[in-house]
């Protein structure tokens, strides 16, 4: 795969400051421009351009570097100071001999000059880690040179015939088959956004590579594509963008106390909204603005405001929306207005909300904050004196103190959401679903409320319905489970159960399965849920309440659907409808709350299915839990004690086992965790299992019979030994029964040593 990102490069600087200290040392130690070009009329790259090239090449100690047709000896000398070995190819004999002489004069003993590129005699011979082609080449790297590039290697080659070139193309070889191509501009000097995101640890290289390709197809910028795919947090993206453009990074809390509201009011709101900026203050011939647009035309603002100098600070679009909300409510020194009118009700140190618009604004602030922190749920809990606000992030609740919410405020927000969901003339039930625009996207909200002795309590579950569901691989399953899913989805009939407790990620897994089925034009797919969690093109989505789910399954089966997804097997009627669909030749993906595979099968028995019906209808059971993933920025080795190893392996405990755990850093907000990974049980309906069920063996007696699958224990150990989760997290997620050693158990091959 390859791509050239469609980004507007309005660079702020025309000089390149090295970020890599090794490049600094190499540039300072080498005699830059000491060697004249090899041909009359040639010009060498400027020092800034060489620095730009070296920064993007990221030449490391021990690297093998190939330089093809350099303009002079300057670049080979620099590369020799950074790499272990440099091979220079110069086809013209006189130029080659001159290069050899100048390299000797520079006391370079790790570089050789050849007249032609020597082929690799064997595939196992090491390729080149870095390749530089300075003479104009085609749009693509030639097959001979591409074959010389090692996996994870980088190559750059000139794209224009200028001497020196103004543009070069960089290729990253991600693995044996996948590559990523991006253009570098040697006139304007700025690190590529994707590189900076990867270096900062806020995005994975593979995610950036996929986003670059998708951005070229969608026309979006790389940052926008990464946000849409959920590969990076908005706060992290704009913090890196600010560093890339050498702009100060700010947020709503820091900006509001400094904001001159009279200055803001002096300009048309449509103008400010269109250009996505706010004037903060002016004076002494200088104007300070805050913007969420990295390409804000500052020169035009100088003309508009008639100021000698305009300086900009960058903030996220969500923070810009928060500032506008504060302006609308009349307060620039805090996140919300606190003005008291005659008809307002005093509550503590601030007034209560008295209008739907204020309730909507407060709710949007809370939801935007929740999105920024990657929260899956927002909890409002009434207590004496106010409302406690908590976000659930990676399965754990966190207190949020930045919003002051009264019980009156909570009631007003719930009323607004209820009317949005069911209309002003309907009764407000204890739970409901609705769509809510927030932070530039549309959220699906599942709201539940309950009356407590201290007042109303409410939980709002957040779903980004406009985002595309992730693939099975992207969800973090290891290769055997991915293969198992792909195998089960190829079946033409039968039932696949997707199980887990609340907040186990099974809905995301079900949609990942549907996303794979969408690519099969020969199959018609119908998804039936109480409230659809994603909008997925290519399938029919049916919103059916619990009481009507069974009927919806029957109707979909009668309309010649090939695959049915039933969000939840709520009751006996729905289970029986799913069984009828299987018997009529459909593949059914069904969700169920269950703690393990045996529990799922027993629930089918409890709903009236015979053992024979289960044996002939169920293809497989997947059960998953979510564990918090160690933060990649701060995780460090941890050697397990003998007691810990014994708890995992009993008498077969290894003599030593080193795992990893996050210690807490700024990137993970001190938690030591960043994201979640699934721990999975896979219970296929193997022939021995089917025969046992037909003989009437109870599900709870199948443990020693079932084979060919994967236990929660196996899955968790694989994550532990890979450093993805900590020992404490494994013990926190899995029960003693799930960790229990069975007689003759051995650790899965290759997982622990």
Structure summary:
With 753 residues, the chain is α/β, with parallel strands linked by helices. It is built from 27 helices and 27 strands. Mean pLDDT is 81; it is low at 1-15, 332-354, 422-428 and 742-753.
Any overview of this molecule?
With 753 residues, this protein is α/β, with parallel strands linked by helices. It folds into four domains: 21-188, Rossmann fold, CATH 3.40.50; 252-327, GMP Synthetase, Chain A, domain 3; 346-464, 2-Layer Sandwich (Beta-Lactamase), CATH 3.30.450; 479-739, P-loop containing nucleotide triphosphate hydrolases (Rossmann fold, 3-Layer(aba) Sandwich). Helices cover 34% and strands 24% of the residues. The protein has a seven-stranded mixed beta sheet. The two termini are 36 Å apart. Residues 1-15, 332-354, 422-428 and 742-753 have low confidence and may be disordered.
């Amino acid at each position: 795969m390859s791509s050239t990102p469609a980004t507007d490069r309005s660079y702020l600087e025309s000089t390149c400051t090295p970020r890599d200290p090794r490049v600094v040392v190499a540039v300072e130690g080498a005699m830059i421009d000491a060697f004249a070009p090899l041909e009359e009329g040639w010009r060498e790259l400027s020092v800034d351009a060489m620095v730009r090239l070296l920064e993007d090449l990221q030449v490391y100690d021990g690297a093998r570097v190939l330089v093809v047709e350099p303009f002079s000896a300057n670049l080979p000398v620099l590369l020799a100071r950074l790499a272990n070995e440099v091979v220079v190819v110069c086809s013209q004999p006189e130029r080659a001999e001159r290069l050899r002489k100048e390299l000797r004069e520079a006391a370079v003993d790790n570089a050789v000059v050849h007249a032609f590129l020597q082929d690799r005699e064997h595939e196992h011979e090491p390729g080149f880690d870095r390749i530089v082609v300075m003479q104009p080449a085609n749009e693509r790297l030639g097959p001979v040179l591409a074959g010389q590039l090692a996996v994870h290697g980088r190559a750059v080659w000139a794209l224009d015939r200028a001497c020196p070139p103004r543009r070069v193309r960089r290729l990253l070889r991600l693995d044996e088959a996948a590559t990523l191509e991006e253009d570098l501009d040697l006139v304007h000097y700025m690190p590529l956004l994707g590189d900076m995101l990867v270096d900062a640890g806020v995005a994975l290289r593979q995610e950036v590579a996929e986003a670059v390709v998708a951005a070229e197809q969608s026309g979006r910028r790389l940052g926008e594509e990464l946000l849409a795919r959920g590969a990076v947090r908005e706060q992290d993206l704009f913090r890196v963008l600010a560093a890339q453009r050498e702009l100060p990074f700010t947020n709503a809390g820091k900006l509001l106390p400094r904001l001159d509201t009279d200055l803001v009011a002096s300009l048309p709101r449509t103008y400010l909204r269109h250009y996505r900026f706010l004037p903060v203050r002016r004076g002494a011939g200088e104007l300070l603005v805050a913007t969420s647009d990295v390409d804000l035309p500052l020169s035009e603002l100088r003309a508009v405001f008639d100021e000698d100098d305009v300086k900009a600070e960058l903030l996220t679009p969500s923070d810009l929306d928060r500032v506008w909300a504060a302006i609308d409510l009349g307060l620039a020194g805090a996140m919300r207005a606190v003005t008291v009118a005659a008809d307002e009700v005093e509550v503590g140190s601030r007034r209560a909300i008295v209008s739907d618009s204020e309730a909507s604004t407060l709710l949007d602030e809370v939801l935007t904050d929740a999105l920024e922190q990657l929260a899956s749920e927002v909890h409002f809990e009434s207590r004496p004196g106010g409302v406690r606000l908590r976000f659930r992030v990676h399965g754990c609740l966190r207190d949020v103190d930045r919003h002051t919410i009264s019980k009156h405020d909570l009631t007003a927000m719930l009323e607004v959401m209820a009317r949005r969901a069911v209309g002003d003339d309907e009764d407000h039930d204890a739970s409901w679903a609705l769509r809510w625009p927030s932070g530039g996207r549309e959220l699906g909200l599942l709201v539940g409320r309950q009356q407590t002795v201290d007042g109303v309590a409410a939980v709002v579950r957040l779903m980004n319905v406009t985002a595309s569901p992730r693939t099975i691989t992207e969800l973090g399953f290891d290769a055997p489970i991915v293969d198992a899913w792909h195998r089960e989805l190829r079946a033409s009939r039968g039932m696949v159960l997707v199980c887990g407790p609340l907040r186990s990620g099974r809905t995301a897994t079900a949609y990942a399965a549907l996303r794979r089925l969408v690519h099969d034009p020969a199959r018609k797919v119908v998804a039936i849920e109480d409230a659809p969690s994603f909008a997925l093109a290519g399938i029919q989505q049916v919103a059916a309440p619990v009481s009507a789910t069974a009927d919806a399954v029957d109707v979909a089966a009668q309309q010649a659907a090939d695959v049915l997804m039933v969000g939840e097997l709520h009751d006996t009627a729905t289970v029986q409808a799913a069984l009828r669909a299987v018997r009529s030749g459909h593949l059914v993906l069904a969700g169920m709350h269950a703690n393990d595979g045996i529990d799922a099968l027993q629930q089918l028995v409890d709903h009236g299915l015979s053992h024979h019906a289960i044996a002939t209808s169920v293809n497989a059971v997947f059960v998953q839990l979510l564990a918090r993933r160690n933060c990649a920025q701060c995780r460090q080795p941890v050697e397990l004690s003998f007691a810990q190893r014994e708890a995992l392996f009993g008498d077969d405990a290894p003599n030593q086992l080193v795992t990893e755990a996050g210690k807490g850093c700024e990137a993970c907000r001190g938690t030591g965790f960043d994201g979640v990974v699934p721990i999975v049980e896979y219970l296929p309906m193997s022939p021995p299992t089917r025969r046992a069920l037909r003989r009437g063996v109870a599900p709870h007696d199948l443990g020693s019979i079932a084979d060919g699958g994967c236990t929660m224990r196996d899955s968790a150990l694989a994550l532990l030994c890979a450093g993805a989760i900590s020992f404490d997290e494994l013990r926190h997620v899995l029960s003693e029964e799930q960790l229990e050693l069975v007689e003759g158990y051995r650790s899965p091959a290759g997982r622990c040593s």
